[in-house]
Specification:
Chloramphenicol Acetyltransferase; OB fold (Dihydrolipoamide Acetyltransferase, E2P); alpha+beta; binds oxidized coenzyme A; 462 residues; 21 strands
Length: 462
């Protein structure tokens, strides 16, 4: 018996790297080459293996500690009779796993399970975004009930560990199907699918929905995600998704899967309002504040939320949370993805103030400088593609909100006035709403009222 120090071996340029996983504890028996900790720099992660077999007597590091070559990891009792020694962990450290995709090529069907990485710069989703994604998902889907962790340490490459961490998957509960039981990307994806299916089933049961007949999941017969070797068909390259896209993708997917969406389309005649807007901008050219149609829509949304309060609500179990404040989010397109900054207390602000705040928030969004406070607390969102084009679309509700207004590019259309066709500037509206909270008739009324405000903005003061 001998007590040896196991140290971090030569890990090249990696200096002061954070420990993101501690894979052993005091009392564990480890084999030589078995991974002890995982460290991660901003570019890659790697596992630090044990130099010897033995029993862990004392851990000298903890999660989050920073280590470099030569840092003491743990004290190991070896059975090989070696004298008390200082042993750098095995020199053959697994090659760093750069933040490249895991080897298997199957794309991930963006699961709505939590990404455990904290979302310091939240994205889509108003209240939801500011919270870590885990908390967001937990608010909607029942928490995953841990299964029995496998007794053995999970074997997985650093890239798979990173992948699992991003999805919040506890590797100890994943059964490996790879060589010698190694966990593959496919195993992690399957785990997510199983949890998702179970969670959705629970949601359905909670809502007392009839169970899917004769199935062991909510989606009987659902085919697995296609696994394609794209390189077989032509040259390809792989790109990491931006952090914003990953977080917003998970939120959008959850919202799309969980919320029973319906979208009503309508048109608003904005001929006079557009003329007024152009006139306003001419008069205020020197102010530096440009009034956009979106500012009028934010005011119209406030008035419509006041008239139809169920649109200014959130579901909380069997209760509706009715809000007496009016914070309106607007979707902003940025080079890194979609974000939804929020104009707070829009009911207390005028068109100029809203226009100014919107332009400041849109700039902050494009510069990647929005903070959580800029994106939280929204009651209702507007997604405007008016500056780009298109006719109608089906926007995804920004949970925990219950409705979202999508608008596209206005165009001159012939409208019959009873005697002749008149050229009118028509704005296409697409209102998506949560059918658990809102009925179709209310949605149609909301759209008609919203359109009537834009058609004659004097109605806003009635
Ligand atoms: N019809 C016709 N023209 C419109 C219009 C509409 N509905 N809305 C805006 N425009 C015009 C503006 O008047 C402006 O024209 P000028 O430059 O001649 O004045 C031009 O389009 C550009 O407007 P804008 O997009 O800069 O301003 P905005 O206030 O309409 O929108 C913002 C601001 C931040 C919402 C927008 O830039 C943006 O990011 N939109 C994309 C939102 C998005 O991605 N939604 C999809 C979400 S689902 O994936």
């Amino acid at each position: 018996m001998a007590l040896i120090e196991v140290k971090v071996p030569d890990i090249g340029d990696f200096d002061e790297v954070a420990i993101i996983e501690v894979l052993v504890k005091a009392g564990d028996t480890v084999k030589a080459e078995q991974s002890l900790i995982t460290v991660e720099s901003d570019k890659a992660s790697m596992e630090i293996p044990s130099s010897h077999a033995g029993v862990v007597k004392e851990l000298r590091v903890a999660l989050g500690d920073k280590v470099s070559t030569g840092s003491l990891v743990l004290m190991l009792e070896t059975a090989d009779g070696a004298a008390v020694a200082s042993a750098a962990a095995a020199t053959a450290v697994a090659a760093p796993a750069a933040s490249a995709p895991a080897p298997e090529t199957a794309p991930v069907a963006a699961p709505a399970v939590p990404a455990s990485a904290p979302a310091s710069a939240p994205v889509v989703d108003t209240a939801a975004v500011a919270a870590p994604a885990a908390a967001v998902a937990a608010a909607v889907l029942p928490a995953h009930q841990p299964g029995t962790p496998s007794a053995a340490l999970p074997h997985a490459s650093p890239s798979i560990r990173k992948f699992a961490r991003e999805l919040g998957v506890p590797l100890a509960e994943v059964k490996g199907s790879g060589f010698k039981g190694r966990i593959t990307q496919h195993d992690v994806q399957n785990f997510v699918r199983t949890v998702m299916t179970g969670s959705l089933q629970t949601v359905a049961q909670q809502a007392k929905a009839p169970a899917a007949a004769g199935s062991d999941g909510a989606f009987p017969g659902l085919l697995p995600w296609p696994k394609v070797d794209f390189a077989k068909f032509g040259p390809i390259e792989r790109k990491d998704m931006s952090r914003i896209k990953k977080i917003s993708g998970a939120n959008l997917h959850r919202n799309w899967v969980v919320i029973p969406h319906v979208t009503n389309h309508d048109d608003a005649d904005i001929t006079e309002l557009e003329a007024f807007r152009v006139q306003l901008n001419k008069e205020n050219e020197k102010s530096g504040v440009k009034v956009t149609m979106l500012a009028f829509m934010i005011k119209a949304a406030v008035a419509a939320l006041k008239k139809f309060p169920e649109f200014n609500a959130s579901l909380d179990g069997d209760q509706l949370v009715m809000k007496n404040y009016f914070h309106i989010g607007f979707a902003a397109d940025t080079p890194n993805g979609l974000v939804v900054p929020v104009i707070k207390d829009a009911d207390q602000k005028g068109i100029f103030q809203i226009s100014q705040e919107m332009s400041e928030l849109a700039k902050k969004a494009r510069d990647g400088k929005l903070g959580p406070a800029d994106m939280t607390g929204g009651c209702f969102s507007i997604s405007s593609l008016g500056g780009i084009g298109g006719k109608y679309f089906t926007p995804i509700i920004n949970a925990p909100e219950v409705a979202i207004m999508g608008v596209c590019k206005s165009t001159i259309e012939p409208k019959w006035d009873g005697q002749a066709f008149q050229p009118r500037l028509m704005l296409p509206l697409s209102l998506s709403w949560d059918h658990r909270v809102i009925d179709g008739a209310s949605a149609a009324r909301f759209n008609v009222y919203f359109a009537s405000l834009l058609a004659d903005f004097r109605r806003i003061v009635l």
